[in-house]
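Work Package 3 (structural annotation) set out to generate three-dimensional models for the target panel prioritized at the project kickoff. During this period the team completed the workflow that converts sequence records into C-alpha cells, so that structures can be stored uniformly alongside our sequence database. As a representative example, we reproduce one entry of 54 residues exactly as it appears in the project archive.
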Amino acid sequence: MSSSKINPTKESIKLFAKQIRTPSLVEYEDIIRQLDKEQSYEHFLMELMKREVS
C-alpha cells in the first residue's frame, strides 16, 4: 500500500483556492504549525489573508 494517500479534504481546499484565485490558502497547514495553541481562529484567518495579500 502506498504511503501517499489522497486526502479529499485537502484536494477540495486546493480546488476551491484555485477557483477563487487565492493560491496562498493552500499553505494553511504551514500556518497551523506556526500558531500557538492559544491563538484563535480569527488569528489563523488573519495569517492566511496576510499571505494572500503578500
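The CA atoms of residues 6 and 33 lie 21 Å apart.
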